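Propose amino acids for all 206 sites.
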């Protein structure tokens, strides 16, 4: 994928100032099939099922249907389903409403992500970054495996995932844009001229 070929359907905005670059990534939305849509559907299903079950058992209890009084343990279980429904919906909303900005400014990579539960800001110097590529996140969908995210690997300090649930083509394109911008840092012009690998999954910044 070439640097200037934006993936089809992508709404990422690219700002350039000399060798510096900023990528503004809008929310992916709650109905995207990459993960948010699945969690939204699951959450709504749990919510609807919990509401129907609660109403049915409450009506049976109120109207003193035969045997209803012996089913009181059900009312202890129903809150679990309500909590699961709310949790899945909150996860979908947070994933779907998160927006991010990723910028290469001089020798630094800056990342800001804002979501339902606040903002996260990270920064690394160029020489601190081992690689940037698409990889599995900590979010998983049963039957489909982990949801993909953009992974930033530091030489020391592990990895940082961002843009969970965005389309794979968009994630690979963003990873390529950031790696190339980091390779255009001033010090790379003084001695080395590194070539961009063909695959976004097997590259190194350093």
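Proposal:
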């Amino acid at each position: 994928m070439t640097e200037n070929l934006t993936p089809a359907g992508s709404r990422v905005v690219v700002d350039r100032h000399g060798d510096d670059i900023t990528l503004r990534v809008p929310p992916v939305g709650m109905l995207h099939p990459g993960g948010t849509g699945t969690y939204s559907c699951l959450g709504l299903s749990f919510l609807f099922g919990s509401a129907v079950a609660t109403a049915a058992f409450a009506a049976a209890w109120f109207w003193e249907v035969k045997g209803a009084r012996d089913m009181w343990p059900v009312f202890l279980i129903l809150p679990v389903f309500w909590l699961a429904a709310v949790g899945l919906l909150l996860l979908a909303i947070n994933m779907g409403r998160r927006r991010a900005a990723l910028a290469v400014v001089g020798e630094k990579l800056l990342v800001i992500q804002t979501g339902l539960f606040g903002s996260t800001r990270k920064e690394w110097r160029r020489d601190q970054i081992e690689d940037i590529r698409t990889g599995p996140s900590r979010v998983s969908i049963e039957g489909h495996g982990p949801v993909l995210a953009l992974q930033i690997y530091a030489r020391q300090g592990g990895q940082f995932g961002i843009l969970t649930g965005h389309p794979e083509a968009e994630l690979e394109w963003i990873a390529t844009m950031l790696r190339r911008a980091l390779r255009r840092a001033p010090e790379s012009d003084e001695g080395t001229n590194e070539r961009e690998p063909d695959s976004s999954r097997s590259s190194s910044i350093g």
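The CA atoms of residues 58 and 162 lie 43 Å apart. Residues 187-203 have pLDDT under 50 and may be disordered.
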